[in-house]
Amino acid sequence: MSVSKMKKLTVFAHKREESEIIKKLVRLRCVDISPADSDKVLSCAVYNCDKLRMELESSVADINEAITVLNKYQKRTGGLFKSKTSVNSESFVRDGYEKQARFTVSETLATISRQSAIKAEIARAEAMAVSAVPYTEHDLPLGLAGTERTEIILGALPSGTDLKTLGHRLADIGAVARILLSDNTGIYISVICHRDDTADIMSALMEYGFIRATFKGVERTAKAYIAEMRKKTAELSEEYSSLEDKLAALADNLCSVEILYDIEQTDLNCTLAKQKMITTESVVVLTGWIPEFFESKVISVLEKYGCAYDIAEPEENENPPILLQNNGFASNFEWVLGMYSYPAYGRFDPTFIMSICYFIIFGIMFADAGYGLLLILACFGGVKLLKPSQSMERFLKMFGYCGISCVVFGILFGAYFGDLPLAIMRNMMGIPEAELPNLALLGGSAANLAILFDPLQNPMGFLLISLGVGAVHLIAGMAVKFVILCREGQAIDAILDIGAYWVLFAGLGLLFVVPAVGKWVLIGAAAVIVLTHGRQEKNIVMKLLKGLLGLYDLISYASDLLSYSRILALGLAAGVIAQVVNILATMGGPSVGGFIVLVIAFIIGHLLNMVINVLGTFVHTSRLQYIEFFNKFYEDGGVAFEPVTPSDKYTVDDGE
Question: 3-state DSSP call for residue 289?
């Protein structure tokens, strides 16, 4: 409907009260704090709270990690449908629940840290036990390197090693080798030799790909070592299990931890806002934007603390943030506009008109009463059960309203999950083709349930409707521009630049009805365009050339109009896919197996078709608004109004 009028806020407050003031303004949810310019205020510097910010960021990260862990153990009912906790943050701190929550967080983090260490220790113990298995026949301690004069060497040779030749070489040097284990992983041996011969023995072994095993510090035999590692693994596993029980007990305090998260995140939001302020030794300066209708609430807070403040109109070179104001229906489409760009401050907000066009085009493009009903139930049911955030609520409501449009046009075009009723009558009930209902008022010789006509049977009729909707949409965009120009005192420009084209379009239409009249209307409109389109030019030749180029805009309008044929393409695609799904679903005939196939194919096929085509319809309906509609009048360039707000991810603070 309109862009909210903004006021520039400048506040001078005592430094000892800045935290309380910021918290109060944050709770109002109506102040978009912008960085203050220290160059404009003498002896001021940027407010430095980096240390506090980093502490809060670390705290929020820790709390969030604890919540993620404890969620796996929580026993609360509700799941996705649980509502937010109502809490008074001041009472939460005062009554000691904050300390309990912080203790829960620290214990949770310490517990999962110990669990990570246990996992690493178990993995290490298991690896050591596995590494000792091939040496269970070695009767000496694994870590024993030998005696004063002898060397004990443990290790593995590749499978298939010529042990006979290797044995002769080792014997020639004076070593004694023993095979401990031979399998597909290798040949594990122990070698005892004189210390003076160690280098020669290792050289000989290395030629055969020998890998030496080291068990430094292990003073037990392989069997004893393996038993020790397995005992250690069992003890660690038992400790890990006890820590799981501890986390389950800590999860009973999850609600308090979630409240603490919102409190800390709110404090972080306040701190980030403080970093945009400038300060002297005893005064802080805050600047930002507030909607005009919130002015009295902001003033009441500032006067409570005795602040010096100024609330002024924006200057010409300033670009205030944009807050859109629309009714309960159109406000749900604001995020679609935001995906493109917000209007420039003080310019026309097209959300209301766009929402109506979006509603109609989406319904025609995805005209199916069955899919539309599912959209209504899923979206409005989600709003009712999930209690989502405002942005998610608007997202769901928009698709819910579009579902209503789908139902309306689905009934007009006779689409109920494609032609599912007819497919059931035909294949499951055995009704002859000649006896199937044909309800269409406008064409269609085959069976259909349409009130108007079936687009699959009459695609040309559907194309004409698509182009007709496109023509109305384009003319609506031109009409908006016409009104904008008139409001700005440029009525003559509106008549010559837009009204002349309307007359030209009327002449083109009359050519097919009353050719004699249409010809002169067309000629007159073309003459007006040629003679006036270049009126801003001083040179007569340039006036004429620019006037002739004005007629070239007809090509642009024709191109834009043809873009609306995508309504036909998307509508037929959804219908054809649904029809194919129905053929597959009912091909089993009237039998138990056929009924099972019907249910499975219906659920899977139509769900996939719905998801794919809702996405496609959303994209292409949005494109028609952005490219074909907005380029007729829209002046964008605005920045969204983003007030500093308290965190409400898990809670609602009833102390606000």
Answer: strand
